Amino acid sequence: MAQRNGKRRRTTVLESPLSATWTPRVRERAVLVGVGHGIDPSDLDELAALADSAGAEPVSRIVQTRSDPDPATFVGKGKLEEIHRAVHSTGADAVILDDELTPGQLRNL
Description:
This protein is α/β, with parallel strands linked by helices. The chain has one domain: 3-Layer(aba) Sandwich (Rossmann fold). About 25% of the residues lie in helices and about 30% in strands. It is built from three helices and seven strands. A three-stranded parallel β-sheet has the order 6-5-7, sandwiched between helices. A two-stranded antiparallel sheet has the order 1-2. A two-stranded antiparallel ribbon has the order 3-4. Helix 1 links the parallel strand 5 and strand 6 (about 55-65). The longest helix has 14 residues, at about 75-90.
């Protein structure tokens, strides 16, 4: 088992189980975030499937109901704090959003 920041990582993926030189690798852990009007955590099922097929393990889903994403940070300040807590509590390596960020949002985050 690999360790990161003192936390054990349990999930491994085989690069190619038929290869003579296969080496197990640790999957990246990701927090999934969705923003929209009337959004529900189950609305992130497709995003979770895409993350999984790309080699990431979805470890948390966070949604924010709002008509439009925040122009400065995509999510509101309180939701940003919730994402921060989720990243630290799950040991996530990445945050995957259900929409593209503007250059300004990327810079602000």
